[in-house]
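FORM 7B - TANDEM STRUCTURE REPORT

SECTION 1: FIRST PROTEIN
SEQUENCE AND TOKENS:
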Amino acid sequence: MPAKTELKIWFDKSAEKWTEALPLGNAETGAMIYGKTDREIIALNNDRLWSGLPDEQQNTTAKNAIPAARKLIDEGKYAEAYSFVNNKMLGHYTQSYMALGDLYLDFSHKPENVSEYARQLDLSKAEYSQTYKYNNINYKREAILSYPDKVMAIRLTADKSNSISFTVSFKSQLRHNVKQISFDTLELTGIAPIFNDPNYDSPDLALIYDESENPKGIKFAARLKIIANGKKISSCFDGSELKIENADSAVLLLATGTSFVAFDKMPDRDFIHEIANIIEKAAEKSYDKLFLRHIKDYENLFGRVKFDLENENENTKEKYNENYINKPTDIRQKEFENEKDMELIALYFQYGRYLLISSSRGDSFAANLQGIWCDEIKPPWSCNLTTNINTQMNYWLAENTNLSECHRPLFHLLNYLAKHGEKTAQIHFGCRGFTAAHNVDVWAHSAPAKGNAVWAYWPLGGAWLSLHIFDHYLFTKDYNFLKRYYHVIHDAALFCHDWLYLDKEYNKYVTSPATSPENMFVYKDSNGDKKSACVSKGSTCDMAIIRQLFLDTIKAAEILGTDTDFIKQIQEKSENLFPYQISPETGRLMEWYIDFEDSEPGHRHLSHLLGLYPGTHVTKENSPEIFEAARKSLEIRLANGSGHTGWSCSWVINLFARLKNGNRAYDYVKQLLTKSTYPNLFDAHPPFQIDGNFGGTAGIAEMLLQSHEEFIEILPALPDKWKNGNIKGLKARGNITVDISWENNKFTKAVLYTEEDIDSIKIKYNGEDYIIDIIPFEKNIFKI
């Protein structure tokens, strides 16, 4: 049992499934630790281990099909247009993210003879630890994945000398080889398959990887060095395993790497030499020194936000902790139905921040559908970056939970995507600017995928992703950043400018063909027969993205003092965009340009509500009718079963937060924890998708602080169940850090800090406006 703390995920038994293992990550290497006492499994990943090679993958005839598709849509032949888009306007599927391999540590400590077992992930330290007793000896394992030293360090100790004995081995599902590099070092090398490689579906994939063949594809390696307290380390089984006997303690150092260079370059880098240097430099430091460097770096990010929620039914925090904190996390999760353990929400909130830090930092690749952790070589949806909600949701928490640096890998990707997407815009759509479709991979795939148009045809993925750039500027006020990335915003807006066309029926600008991500509608054809389709024009989602993008582009250009002529052009189109439509029958915000019948009334996607969240232009103050219609649309969707996947549930939390309905937002926080979360607190789509974790954390923050209008709103959606609490370190737009405390469901104090040159801030609480004076570089206290 761990010491009392609010930020430890712990279990009293080892993991049997991958979704019970505990994750570590330094954004480049990921590890899932099972905590087994007999044969430990540590599943490994590297952020740039993907199948395939650089490839344009463009449909060169698609743009010629656009006029015919638009004609079918204008004639109301939606099913025919759907079929036409499927046959003429799609392309090739993305490549796949892949598991690197497994590290095995064989101790032969039989579980039936083990007692006092506990394993835990300490979120405050990003450290895994495990303790147990075997043959009256107390064993301990500790592990970190260091960002500054780029290495995984594992320490094995016991309270009796000469008690550490184990065998080390590697295995991979990919073509691989394992060999002993030196007396204390073992190395796994291998190669990922290329697109359409016949071995991809063949048992031959497991054949030994021979470097002399110089095959194509991304090569990978994991190198392990053992420091075993001066004891002898021997090899066995042709040098494919290392054996340690009777050591007092041992430290294992592991690093991974790949030959990936860039999205448009062949994978050819001396990564073996790189990881060898990483290991040798790390070996010059003790485990304690590696840990101190790790925790100093990690705490700089994670420690910015503190969150505490008290249980409304307990009189003292001490009693509360005693009742709930010291139960294993899986038990706490199962018992959350009784709504006593509010600190589990705080733990879940911080877990989302931990996962983002661990999967998206510095020069790493952007977080994919599973962040950085994946145990398959053919994972669900290729574990790619899905841009019709999932990749965006991965980064919803980056700004408001004070992790702006973790947003950086997405911006790096957008730089590459804008270059590749420029070709897609020209070849596939006949437009300027850049576009990206439904799926993106490490090769910056930007064209519509091969598949069904209901999801594969999605030309506004790049536009939606580009919204993150201006939002990052609003939170950080980083002028140089905005100047550096403005070209991405401009090119996304340029594509939308060219893609819009003036619809003669409405005399408004619309998109066509247009879809609403992964959803379909029902209509009657000219014969009165009901048919289903997904393709029409001017879908609400399309218009919301373009409306938001144009607003952002205009503001960004004004700040930078640039692009005057182009801004005039998009202002003209912005003023004449097809407007939001409210259903005369139900009062809801319509998803399509016509009030079609829903094919699936409880559909998981809520794309037509994008203007409310994550967009910022639908507010109660600025557009009360649309705001109310969005609320009705959400309630109707939920009444029919929406919010049933983890990420959809997280989106609902954020939407209700923007609707200022804390109790309804809390209902879906509860649902997320009890119905859409695995034992290790990974989000369950199912299967595992990390977007639900990130979206859930973002939603909890949005319930407590909002800043998307011309003011900072404190506790805009505080639920009744969160009676007493405080949160420190949330970020508001304007580069303002905010601490908030409340008691008996009423705001008590806020502390605001900024380094920006401002005199005052407008604050809203409970419908009342307050103007407070601000002194930069000082803690400014606000009370009512």
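SECTION 2: SECOND PROTEIN
SEQUENCE AND TOKENS:
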Amino acid sequence: MINHLIAELCTYAQNAGLIEAQDHWFAVNALLEALKLDSFEGPGKVEPRELSEILSDLCNYAVEQGIIEDGITSRDLFDTKLMGLLTPRPSEVNRKFDALYAENPEKATDWYYDLSQATNYIRRDRIKKDQKWLAETDYGTMEITINLSKPEKDPRAIAAARNAAPAGYPKCLLCEENEGYAGRMNHPARQNHRLLVLNILGQPWGMQYSPYVYYNEHCIFLNRCHQPMKIDKSAFQKLLAIVEHFPHYFVGSNADLPIVGGSILSHEHFQGGRHTFAMETAPVERTFTVPGFEQVTAGVVKWPMSVLRLRCAEAAPLAELADKILTAWRAYTDEAAGIFAETDGEPHNTITPIARRRGSDYELDLVLRNNLTTEEYPLGVFHPHQELHHIKKENIGLIEVMGLAVLPARLKGELEAVAAHLADGSDLSADPLTASHAEWALRIKAEHPEMNADNVTSIVQEEVGKVFATVLEHAGVYKRNAEGQAAFDRFIKTLG
């Protein structure tokens, strides 16, 4: 049985292009060592199977033999170790990528994305578990995702992490030191991780794909030095340099302040990919010109958040104007609109920028952000408000800003229960799964007299999309009414 599994994995690796035929015995012996075996007898021809099935069976064997404990984290650490033995070395990956890039940038990223899936760095079997649907809103077609691909930590892992001594290596999940790292109970294994080496404006940067892809070719560009996120002129220049290097990708940055920023503010990084978000297709409502930047087309985007869109044939003027807008916004206070640049010395204003190419032109979307908190809104004034927390309570980062909701895993069971109660008329408030949704669900029922067992799920999903649009409206610093847009124009006038 174990010989057959080893043969299956080696055959998979060869078919996937991870190893060549002449690497066969080297790979077999590496796997024997990991599985604490000292001999191998080839089973002959093997039929192809899904990688996840082969790895699951190998983990089962490792559990039976006492090599690993039976838990999700232990299994992840072990199957990553096995795949790391079959993954090409970083130098080999970079040489292949560079050669393909010289032919065509898209060809290079296609190959690298396929590699990242073939090595199981991107766990395709888990990504498939995510629930996804589209929802029509006043701002276009939003994308809704319930994230089910990140495994829940098992009790053994939680206990082991609690008892483990603090570790400072790698410094964070993005550091280049993760490449090839064996991992531990509180840090994922990365033996199958390969980082592309890039030069961005003379600085050492890297590129990788996200192991939890939320959209097509979801990638991360990261500074190879561990330094904090900072939105400034150089950030705009780097974003524009990246889309010059990869014109088929967009790239954006989370903001650099808590609440409105990303989950890892300690390490400078951007996120990109080959995907068209609803915000990209949203139209410009009104245009304006900033003196000294007549070559730049500027306008306000029809979007629930407050977005300025800049477009120019050259990158340099875009970075200059974006820096001018950022500088003005950092210092801007409009008490009538509830916007304060700082309180008690704490800065509140920043920007979430997104860069892309429009044909040969460069385009920058600048999303104005503010992280002010008050007694009424302790999680943030420009953050999902309490009445929406039954759907979305977490911070609104770059991906959601652009129109893709990343919702918590709890909603899978909760929304299924909501649909079931609405279909049979049972009490929503009596069920712990649906009690927090009861008021919202009853309102849906009143607004949809056509609801029945056949269409209830699609109606609930449609209404979740509307909630997400409202979430983004709450996160917008200027509201989508006459008063809010007049306040938006007051800020634009300060630009000259």
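SECTION 3: OBSERVATIONS ON SECOND PROTEIN
The CA atoms of residues 350 and 369 lie 5 Å apart.
The longest strand covers residues 349-358.

SECTION 4: SIGNATURE
Preparer initials: ____
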